[in-house]
Amino acid sequence: MRRKTRAINIGGVLVGGGAPITVQSMTKTDTRDVPSTVAQIKELAGAGCEIIRCGVPDAQAAEALRDIKKQSPIPVIADIHFDYRLALAAIAAGVDGLRINPGNIGEADRVKQVVEAAKERQVPIRIGVNGGSLPAEFEPEKPLHQRMVDSAMGQVRLLESLDFNLIKISLKAFDVPETLAAYRMISKMVDYPLHLGITEAGTPKTGIIRSAVGIGALLAEGIGDTIRVSLTADPREEVAAGYEILKSLDLRKRGPTVVSCPSCSRTEADVVGLAEMISDLLLSIDKPIKVAVMGCAVNGPGEAKDADVGIACGKGQGILFRRGEKVRVVAEAGYFEALSKEIENF
Question: How far apart (Å, rounded) are the C-alpha atoms in residues 219 and 202?
Fold first, then answer.
């Protein structure tokens, strides 16, 4: 059962309130370079990204958001730190959402100006708390997850005192157990939608695992309304990883799923090579097809019977199957061609 949250509208995309869990990413271009940023956003949208965030380091970047927003096929969120004037400029430029930490914007009057502008244009605000950027003097005697929650709740109360409730919350840390504890705690305190992620997760080799463990554990408990996998990589890898996490929990169905055996001494064909070739082929497909590449009759059509199409590779020949039913026998040299054709037909 998913946690019940209120819904917020980010540029036409609903987050929370039982809406599908959305997949987000962040541009890695210089926001001031409008053509490059727009090009990356369009690439990400093509990969399935539903909401994009852009860093706003200065006034020039804030102004660039005006053209970026006009050309973006998906909602744009401005990521603001410290300078409330950048938040005001981003709102004026037409962004669909803000990611700020009200605590580092400064005086209450500055926060009030941002909130009033956001309220006027119905721009949601994400309160983004990162474990690594909490002030050392803030509740040093408490565990990290408690400090994160206390910081976020203080900012929630500040926005609520200004009669603003278009709020989304994130509580990210590199430490997975602390992140889990923080989200679990705050999920019992408020009904605002939660943005899930593990911050500074690393390169794909380790970052995807860390993110899958942290994000996946919370989603499995019904916690979370939108996600971002943070990787030191092309942002399209973040989007792909996000959907794989959602697909593994049957929360979203987008794009292909490859089922493949790990291979063993029974394997008498290049299953690894074939699986990689099929995975590359499927990158251009966005329909939810499940494809199996199996190494022998032991774990062939039987264990992969729920796959839409698949092949069980034997010595010199293999069995092409569809939903567990044998279609025909294929010579080893034609494995890739036969499975590719079957995928195309499906």
Answer: 21
Coil, strand, or helix at residue 337? helix
pTM listed for this prediction: 0.90
CATH of residue 307: 3.30.413.10
Residue 277 lies in a domain: yes
Q: Would you tell me the crossing angle of helices 84-92 and 108-121 to the nearest 10 degrees? A: 10
- Residue-range definition of the domain harbouring residue 100: 8-248
CATH code, domain with 133: 3.20.20.20
- DSSP of 145-208, one letter per residue? HHHHHHHHHHHHHHHHHTT---EEEEEE-S-HHHHHHHHHHHHTT--S-BEE--TT--SHHHHH
In a domain, 1, yes or no: no
- Encode the chain (346 residues) as per-residue pLDDT tens digits: 899 999 999 999 999 999 999 999 999 999 999 999 999 999 999 999 999 999 999 999 999 999 999 999 999 999 998 899 999 999 999 999 999 876 677 677 888 999 999 999 999 999 999 988 888 888 899 999 999 999 999 999 999 999 999 999 999 999 999 999 999 999 999 999 999 999 988 899 999 999 999 999 999 999 999 999 999 999 999 999 999 999 999 999 888 888 888 877 777 788 899 999 998 888 778 888 999 998 876 666 677 788 899 998 888 888 899 888 888 899 989 999 999 999 998 8
- Annotated binding residue at 303? yes
Does 313 count as an annotated binding residue?
Answer: no
Last residue of a domain, one of 248, 275, 300: 248
Q: Are the C-beta atoms of residues 144 and 178 closer than 8 Å to each other?
A: yes
- Closest residue by Cα to residue 169 from 181, 185, 153: 153
**2 in a domain, yes or no?**
no
| Cα–Cα distance for residue pair 3/251, rounded to 1 Å | 14
Shared domain check, 296 and 184: no
| Residues 91 and 69: beta-carbon distance below 8 Å | no
The total number of structural domains in the chain stands at 2
